[in-house]
Design goal:
The complex is a heterodimer. By secondary structure, chain A is mainly beta. In chain A, strand 3 and strand 4 form a beta hairpin. The radius of gyration of chain A is 22 Å and the shape is globular. Helix content of chain A is 5%, strand content 32%. Chain A is built from 3 helices and 28 strands. By secondary structure, chain B is mostly beta strands. Chain B has a single domain, classed as Immunoglobulin-like. Chain B is 5% helix and 28% strand. Chain B is built from 3 helices and 21 strands. In chain B, the strands form 4 sheets. In chain B, strands 10, 11, 13, 15, 16, 17 and 19 form a 7-stranded mixed beta sheet that branches. Chain B has a 5-stranded mixed beta sheet with strand order 12-21-20-14-18, with no helix packed on it. In chain B, strands 2-1-4-7 form a 4-stranded mixed beta sheet. The longest helix of chain B has 8 residues. Chain B is globular and about 55 Å long. Classes of the chains: A mainly beta, B mainly beta. At the A-B interface, strand 21, strand 24 and strand 25 of A face strand 6, strand 7 and helix 2 of B. Strand 24 of chain A pairs antiparallel with strand 6 of chain B.
């Protein structure tokens, strides 16, 4: 898919409900999916030599408490500001070229952790030193106010990677100069790695990019003031550049014009014949501390970290299941997951073995169908509204450092998203 | 649902024959289970928990003015909490009496792995007793079994995706625990607040392999290991939580804390700080609870200040015995739990045996467990030979982040720390987890 053009697709894609509707069918060419990873596959180049143009821009993002934050970002080609940067998708063996166009008032750059033999303008990319031999950038830069630098590397190892600024990263990365790079294996785009046991369902591939914001740092940068990193103290924590409940809105939701990436995971239950392969969640942490992300109801099977499969030198499987994905700063984890209807509860043939209390006696959640059963709905008591469409399940995933589920005083926001489990097809979700 | 009450649903069940599907050979080599009937019986739940508020004890000095000790606290208690109490077997009056008598940590409980050959549901009823000090709050409560795989929202306790329990109501959660290991549970309503205020505890699932003495003489295991590598003679639950004094004070004083200012003033092990962690157990056998005529907890004589913190963390064992420690962390910070002088073998994490999908052994030995929020670790160690002098040798188990094994005092141990006492012999069999056997 080419880089999506936001302006031409938003109107057709976004529902007003704030809750994403089901979209299982593969998106048509040039139409970004409403849910799941939005790949940018190169803005120029041919075949196995994709070229990505990235431009540093400034803009604002919307936060769940109603605040906005001034940001820096990488945008695709010469598009306006977006946060986070575009998800760059390449294939194993590609010679990837990234041209950085810098519009910022200071030099900027990109480092590609996990990639070897990166070139800058055709020569090996190197840390930059000043005249006194002190490092000024982790890699070659594009100079301020219009400079350009061209990086290239061969994407030799499939997996999930970060790309981020290597220049004043304590400022530039915090300001938003980061994004995800996905390298798909030679065996096929429906595998995370070249191992057969890394196969996943392509319509259930999701990104979980975790970050944080200290609003005072952003304000200082906006006002051209210096910021003392000793005072650094995040007040917002985000997933794919959004806080809950924005996090579960569609990709390219119209009310989040600079935050294109949603994080709702929409899946079907595991089925041995119709849905045999799990989903894949690509976790990335660009924050400053471990983020213990907890998906309810399904253990993640961690099959890779930092763009390498978890296997021994002799190919023995070293993957492990986790219910807390405790991901460190700069790490990426590739996690297979699924939800299996373990008990097969059914209103007629296999009811839940408990008397279901009247809805009027319960506190009803906004995503609840009114029924314990997948695919069933029940009329809500007067005055109660639900966002549930067709008896689908919503199971939460969130950071379990629970004090981070806040937006500077607005609680139960931040890095929260949901796994939406759709009833087996055919269903009434449309 | 009442119209279904008389239905014998066994006759309707779709029994799929216990197929273990490994589709495509390699699609998903994790556990896959087919629906099976269970012999659920309406009636008394296996456990009956009540959610309410209350008070607990943390060392009052040094003070953290104005937050700690709380001026509203009834002496000798210091800290306002929300919590669960075990109401199993109580009459209605006794249950109602437990309002404002929460405990921390929440009652430790455990359950046998669901056995398809003898299917029995495990049920936990939760009632909401209300908050005595904060009648202005009408917070609901839920029970979220953290880590339970493939749960349906109805039994997950996450209030947005299903339902929560209003004050005065009750709800019964039904579990078929198919995966042994160590988990944790908590209320998921406004969970930043309700978790931090103390509605948190540890739960674990015993494996079907239990009782098989061919792998390990005791016939007791952490997992279905097939080789005895997780066999043990004694087991101790180690539940980690934290107290930010300002947040607890704020709830008592009708204030809201700014959660991004969070700090762990106190680090707790089974709801206490050292040296209280080595004080005796109160009523900690969830299935044989002890209470007075009013339903209240009964303090251990001499430890009245720990009335609402019944769980001891003292580890006692005989030399040469294998000891299992089950750790879960529902604090908001990573914990670096260290044992000095004894190597630990990590055999499980997040209720998963340390094995790759093809059986590769991924267990490892360490001194220090870095346990993130929401993570669990299962470890075993073999008690070293008794050296003396004295009846027992003492080894320390503590948070290697020393600011967390400290009670804010200028010197001295505290916080998330306890002792492992190795006797030459004479420690008797455990009646329940965390039992000293003395």
């Amino acid at each position: 898919m080419r880089a999506p053009r936001r302006a031409t697709t938003v109107a057709a894609l976004v529902t007003a409900s704030g809750l994403a509707a089901l979209s299982i069918a593969p998106a048509a060419a040039d139409t970004p999916p409403r849910i799941g990873i939005v790949c940018t596959t190169g803005t120029a180049g041919v075949g196995d030599h994709p070229v990505f143009d990235l431009t540093t821009t400034t803009g604002y993002i919307s936060l769940p408490d109603g605040n906005t934050a001034f940001m820096w970002g990488y945008s695709s080609r010469f598009d306006s500001f977006q946060h986070p940067g575009p998800v760059l998708c390449a294939n194993e063996g590609d010679t990837v070229t990234v041209i950085l166009h810098n519009t910022l008032p200071e030099a900027a750059s990109i480092v590609f952790p996990g990639q070897a033999d990166v070139l800058a303008n055709g020569t090996p990319a190197r840390p930059q030193l000043n005249g006194s031999g002190v490092m000024t950038s982790l890699t070659n830069t594009a100079s301020a106010n219009g400079g350009t630098v061209t990086y290239s590397f061969v994407a030799t190892a499939p997996g999930t990677y970060l790309y981020e600024s290597g220049t004043n990263p304590e400022k530039q990365v915090r300001m938003g100069l980061f994004g995800a790079l996905i390298v798909r294996p030679a065996v096929g785009a429906d595998h995370a790695y070249n191992r057969p046991d890394s196969q996943f369902t392509p319509s259930e591939e999701f990104m979980v990019l975790l970050s944080e914001i200290d609003p005072f740092q952003h304000q200082a940068v906006e006002q051209g003031l210096s910021f003392n990193m000793n005072n650094y103290h995040p007040r917002y924590w985000l997933i794919n550049g959004r806080g809950f409940p924005d996090s579960i809105a569609d990709n390219y939701a119209s009310w989040l014009p600079t935050q294109p990436y949603g994080s709702l995971a929409s899946v079907l239950p595991y089925d041995a014949t119709s849905h045999p392969y799990p989903g894949l969640a690509r976790y990335l942490n660009v924050g400053t501390e471990d983020f213990p992300f907890h998906p309810h109801g399904n253990n993640g099977l961690v099959i890779g970290r930092d763009g390498r499969p978890l296997e021994s030198p002799t190919g023995q499987d070293l993957s492990f299941e986790k219910f807390a994905i405790n991901i460190g700063p700069g790490q990426t984890w590739d996690v297979l997951f699924k939800w299996y209807d373990a008990e097969g509860y059914d209103p007629v043939t296999n009811p839940v073995p408990v008397t279901v209390p009247s809805l009027a006696n319960q506190e009803i959640g906004v995503f609840y169908s009114g029924s314990p059963y997948l695919g069933s709905t029940q009329t809500m008591p007067p005055g109660i509204q639900t966002l549930n469409q067709c008896g689908e399940y919503y199971i939460i995933s969130h950071n379990h450092a629970l004090f981070q589920l806040t937006s500077w005083g607005t609680n139960m926001t931040g890095p929260i998203t949901y796994m939406r489990i759709n009833p087996p097809t055919p269903n009434n979700c449309g | 649902m009442n119209e279904r009450a008389g239905l014998d649903r066994r006759q309707f069940l779709k029994v799929a024959g216990g197929v273990v599907a490994v589709v495509g050979g390699l699609a998903w080599a994790g556990r896959v289970l087919e629906p099976l009937p269970a012999g659920a019986v309406p009636g008394a739940p296996d456990l009956y928990l009540g959610g309410t508020d209350g008070w607990m004890y943390l060392p009052p000095t040094p003070a953290i003015p104005p937050f700690h000790p709380d001026v509203l606290a009834p002496s000798p208690l210091t800290t306002y909490i929300f919590g669960f109490r075990n109401l199993t077997g109580m009459d209605d009056t006794q249950k109602a009496n437990q309002k404002n008598k929460a405990q921390h940590s929440a009652p430790l409980f455990w359950v046998n792995q669901f056995d398809p050959a003898h299917p029995v549901d495990f049920t936990v009823a939760v009632t909401n007793l209300g908050l005595a000090l904060r009648p202005d709050l009408f917070d609901a409560h839920t029970l979220h079994w953290h880590g339970f795989r493939n749960v349906i929202p109805f039994f997950d306790g996450e209030p947005s995706g299903s339902v929560a329990v209003r004050s005065g109501r009750e709800f019964t959660y039904v579990y078929r625990p198919r995966e042994p290991g160590t988990y944790m549970y908590h209320c998921h309503v406004e969970d930043t607040e309700h978790v931090h205020m103390g509605m948190t505890g540890l739960v674990f699932v015993r494996p079907l392999q239990d009782g098989n003495t061919s792998y390990y003489p005791s016939g007791r295991y952490l997992y279905n290991d097939g080789d005895g590598s997780t066999g043990y003679d004694r087991e101790f639950a180690m539940f980690l939580s934290e107290v930010w004094a300002e947040a607890h004070w704020a709830d008592a004083h009708i204030q809201l804390p700014e959660w991004s200012d969070y700090r762990a003033d106190f680090s707790l092990l089974n709801g206490r700080v050292y040296p209280d962690t080595i004080a005796p157990n109160g009523s900690v056998d969830a299935f044989n609870p002890v209470h007075d005529a009013d339903g209240d907890l009964v303090p251990v004589p001499g430890f009245e200040h720990l009335k609402y913190q019944p769980h001891s963390s003292l580890v006692t064992c005989n030399a040469g015995e294998r000891v299992a420690l089950r750790f879960s962390n529902l604090g908001f910070r990573e914990q670096a739990m260290t044992v000095a002088g004894i190597r630990l073998r990590v055999v499980g994490r997040d209720a998963t045996l340390m094995r790759g999908r093809n059986g590769t052994d991924t267990s490892y030995q360490t001194d220090t467990l870095n346990i993130g929020p929401g993570e669990s670790y299962d470890v075993v160690f073999t008690a070293p030979a008794h050296q003396g002098p004295g009846d027992y040798d003492t080894y320390m188990l503590y948070n290697r982040n020393y600011t967390r094994s400290n009670n804010l005092a200028p010197s001295g141990f505290g916080g998330a720390a306890t002792e492992i006492r190795v006797y030459a012999s004479g420690v008797t069999a455990q009646a329940h987890p965390n039992d000293w056997g003395l």
